Amino acid sequence: MTIDKTKLDELIEKMKKEAQELGLDIEEKLDEAKEKWAETAATDPDTARRQLRAFWSVVGLIAGIIIGGCAVHFFG
Asked: Using CB atoms within 10 A as the burial measure, which of 32, 37, 66, 74 is most buried?
């Protein structure tokens, strides 16, 4: 069974285009969220501070779970 090289190249190019479109969509959404947060920070700094604190608490919780899980796995 042989694989047609041109068909494979076409599929690869199609996947690259779709990945680029998805990447652009994600960047647009992040930019929109950043603008919204900047507007919130300008109008209500306390709310923006609470949102930022909540974000970093979630990041810290996830990092703690990962580090703790690795420690238990390797040393437990």
From this structure: 37
**Tokens 């990447």 correspond to what residue?**
23
From the list 70, 42, 35, 40, the residue with the least C-alpha distance to 54 is 40
Q: What is the pTM of this model?
A: 0.57
d(CA 75, CA 36): 44
Report the C-alpha gap between 56 and 61 in whole angstroms.
8
Task: Residue count of the chain, please give it.
Answer: 76
- Terminal-to-terminal C-alpha distance of the chain: 49
